[in-house]
Amino acid sequence: MHAHGHPIRSRVHAGAAVLLFATSAGVHAQALQVGTLRIESTPSAAEVELIGGIAGTTPLTVSERDIYPNNYPDARAALYGTVTLRHAGCEPLQHRVTLGDLKQDLHLRLDCVAARTAPAPRPAPTSAPTAAQPPASPQTLPQRRLRQLQVLQELLDEGLISPAEEQRVRRRILQSGSGTEPGD
To answer: What pLDDT is recorded for position 127?
Structure first.
């Protein structure tokens, strides 16, 4: 017997500790992974535009951060969290990406029949122009989410929160507007 204990037993305990650490590190790394979204369209080969600009043509796989970035130009705020598809002979299609979309592939069908017919003339407005009204609320939620994500990124950059905390809060921010409430 060894003076400090059994040498084989201490090696087994050390091996178990290393295995436990490696397993928990793998689970931790999975929790930090940023999701991806595969975008397909009918017809295929549609141009995909995200908040950062043209991302490519369908079928295309993009990162969650390409759709919901922490930083982007103010002029593109209306495109936050959206995918816009364009195809020759089709009406452009804009789709707001939800948490449910991020969990599965996104398949969008463009309206190509309507684009082939001449557009109907628009009737003259019967009431006062809407330009005098304050901005519509659909931009309010994305702007609020953007500010939250910017603050979150600043906290991470300054080392005030860990990457795991940043990812957890980021998911909650993105879930808040998708109709799915977190189950805490």
So the answer is: 44
Percentage of residues in the chain having pLDDT higher than 70: 63
What is each CA distance from 134 to 19, 81, 130, 141, 177, in whole angstroms? 59, 22, 8, 15, 21
Coil, strand, or helix at residue 92? coil
The total of other beta-carbon atoms located within 10 Å of residue 55's CB is: 20
171 in Cβ contact with 165 (< 8 Å): no
Q: What number of other Cβ atoms are within 10 A of residue 136's Cβ?
A: 8
- Token look-up 């122009």 returns 129
Predicted pLDDT at 135:
45
Q: What does the domain layout of the chain look like in residue ranges?
A: 36-116+138-175
Residue listed under structure tokens 């689970």:
27
For residue 70, what are the contacts with CB-CB under 8 A and spacing of at least 6? Answer: 149, 150, 152, 153
Q: Which residues of the chain have pLDDT under 70?
A: 1-32, 114-139, 177-184
**Distance of alpha carbon 85 from alpha carbon 96, whole angstroms:** 12
- Tally the C-alpha atoms within 13 A of residue 64's C-alpha that lie toward its C-beta: 17
Residue 134: CA count within 13 A, CB half-sphere: 4
Answer yes or no: pTM beyond 0.70.
Answer: no
